[in-house]
Amino acid sequence: MRHDFIDRYSRLDSSVHRLPAGWKMGASLALLVAVIAVPGRQPVWLVPPAAALAVLAMASRIPAAFLVTRLLLLEPFVVGVALLSLLQPGGVRVFSLLLARGTLCLLAVILLANTTPFSEILRVLRRLSVPALLVTTLALMYRYVFVLVDETERLHRARACRTFRRSRRHLWRSAAGVIGEVFVRSTERAERVYAAMCARGWKA
What we know:
By secondary structure, the chain is mostly helical. The protein is built from 7 helices and no strands.
């Protein structure tokens, strides 16, 4: 099972990793607010947050290739939202601004996730009096996303071992079948886990 595809480098020993989790979460939130609050007519104010993120990325010793790969993986979501701005007057300028803002926000979140163990993030949320139900839900989501990824990979390997034709149409049908099977299994697993938790006295 791959347990590190979300926060692979969260347990490195760097000056950024050694900072208290609460400080890093507060700084990330402040940076996100600063990026979002940049006036549309003054995009030059995005340069300081970008420079700060670049310095933090270098100080964290996280491989640049990993950060770039994660950004490229998540960037289509940013582009999809930003494309809607092209329908408005001055759409190209607004599109560029939204793309820059979204990329910087993604980089900030990726850096936070890979410099702070998720257990530390949950501990800070509990100290901030975040509802226990929400914290528990986040913990369960983090725990079982690895199980679902492992289940998806096993189903994909099983399909590949039984596939003798490699046409594009067949690959799409195979992927659709795997996705449907994972959805069914994840629903059934969630019901079993919830029933087991209730049997042990857990209450929402």
